[in-house]
Amino acid sequence: MKKISSKSDEIIQRIKDAHGTYLANENISKYLKPDKIDKLLPEVQAKVEQLLKSLIIDTDRDPHTQETSHRIAKMLLFKVMKGRYQNVP
Fold it and tell me: What DSSP assignment string belongs to 60-87?
């Protein structure tokens, strides 16, 4: 069995174990545990922080970009990609 190193890896493994897929346009809510996507927020935030650094944005010293990675991660998980993670009515 593959070593689980992150929350997203755990969810991916759960999907694979159920012989499911996680294509970009698919709703994966049935594979999420009750903690839902809240547990993904720190991981996504860290990745967004790395993206901003790759774009040569000084998030450490620029007061205008502090907390930006958190805001972007929250926006992605709870707004932009909301339909991916919530049960379809």
Answer: TT-TTTTTHHHHHHHHIIIIITHHHHS-
